[in-house]
Amino acid sequence: MSKRDVVFPAGRHALYEQHHYSPAIRSNGFLFVSGQVGSRADGSPEPELLDQVALAFKNLNGILDAAGSSFADVVDVTVFIVDPHSRFESIWPTVVKNHWGEAPYPNITCVGVTWLAGFDFEIKVIAKLPEG
């Protein structure tokens, strides 16, 4: 078995080393990105919900950029939201407006959860890497 082709975003190696997982793996023309949360450089959550969502996307985009990709290359999205009944309507219009880009949009699965280790929002994606 060959070694995994890991993609690290700039400046966040310690977080992944501490928790023993890879931020993203390149495989067969795709990029599989681990769930990204609105964590500050020290790993702590951004306190305000919409700021946390924006930071999760910033962290995600840092990984996509490190792989030579962007959100426009994303084909599959999974979003986890703590207490979606009370938070989805405040999160979703902002996400679509500020982070989603233009149609055609990626597919998505939204999952309501009870715990995200102190976070309220997490996003994981699969992107088709540009050829070449």
TrEMBL record:
PANTHER family: 2-IMINOBUTANOATE/2-IMINOPROPANOATE DEAMINASE RIDA, RUTC FAMILY PROTEIN YJGH. Pfam families: Ribonuc_L-PSP (PF01042). Signal peptide: none annotated. It comes from Halopseudomonas sabulinigri. This is RidA family protein.
